[in-house]
Amino acid sequence: MKIKAQNFNLKETLESGQFFRYKKEGAWYYCFERDTLFKIRQSGTCIEFSGTTKDHIVRLFGLDEKYEKSLKELGRDKTLARVIRKYKGLRIMRRDPWETLISFQASIMSNIKKIKLNMELIAKAHGKKLLLDNISGHTFPKPGELKDIEKLKACSLGFRAKYIHAANNIVTDKKLKELSKKSYGQAKEELMKIPGIADKVADCICLFSLGHTQAFPVDVWIERAMQKYFKNKKAKPKDIRLFAQNRWGKNAGLAQQFIYHEARNENNP
DNA sequence: AGACAGGGGTAGG
DNA sequence: CCTACCCCTGTC
After folding, report:
1. Which residue minimizes Cα–C1' distance to C5?
2. pTM for this structure?
């Protein structure tokens, strides 16, 4: 199936550290989310995919968002205008909340390569096999299906295994869905009751899966970049987050994605 | 080759 | 504020 998408860059979006379960094969990205395996590629404004529905693609990549409007607003900020031009088409994804929650618990003191490995190992140990063309992988377990802590530990999660195990015992799909209807503040507060979820991880879940677009996750990259752009070397993560939300409001999350992307690219030539 | 540091933070002192 | 934390990976 083919659809048109203006102002969308598949590569920048998928490879910007918000999504971890994909395999690249030529121009195709084979993407895994919960029980679905689909493939997708882009040529200009044409998006081609198979293995899932149009609705899923539109929602997952935020193609129904008022992206142009957000960019226009952010672009008034001279500090951002340059990176927006450079990475135009980079979107905030709207992923499955449960899988997002686990991904970012796994992200603590880790790196993208290892997060991808962890997620693949969790799926392989608990999920069912999926096949599309000659690419295989596994479904992601549902909340409640990660009750064997030893099995989790075997997924190279280290100290994170206990966090994920705890989340598995607390969270349901229904509860997570409800968080998208609550306010950003309430959703974040609820998430932070779960072990292994504090400010940064909660903001990632809010932003990448619950539609709380003002969430502004502050990791070390964002911290360094914001200190540099706004010349405040002593700013602490909380100050930076509040500064950003005050400055960019509902577009703060999108601003974060651009700043993060640029910071990572500057340091990984 | 084998040791060593460090990486998308968090919780507990 | 400070530190330990599991484990993979890159580097010396």
Report:
1. A159
2. 0.97
